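All the exercises in this workshop are built on plain-text protein records. The record below serves as our worked example for the rest of this section.
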Amino acid sequence: MDTDRFADAPPVELPSHRAIENLIARYYELLDTGDFAGLSDLVADASVTLDSGPPLDGRDAVERLVHDTLVLYDDGTPRTRHVASNLVVEVDEAAGSAQSSSYVTVFQALPDFPLQVVASGRCRDRFERRDAGWRFTERWIRTDLLGDVSHHLRGPAG
């Protein structure tokens, strides 16, 4: 198949709801692959709140939280897979704003720790359309169910 024939094609703009779904998926991909600088850039314009903690604003606060909270392994990752489900996206095209709700389920596996769900929760997000596309403006994450997070989180919960 000749894929070069598409090289000069103009980029296709995704429908807003799909672009927002991609942002949410990208968030978890960056987290699971250990790209915490990329994750911090993705939410640089957002206020991120975990459970009942104070809002985290800006790249440095988010990156610091990740490094202070997660157990990282030799490959630089937390050895997790975050799966978003039950995603509902509501877009106000005229206002250039959107909101979403979803569930997140966190799986983890290590050589001495069999694959299992270690946490599950809910997310509420707000987005704004800017010149470069859709951006997170708020991310609220609530943990509802905890399994064995001893290999995932530092501190009292881990």
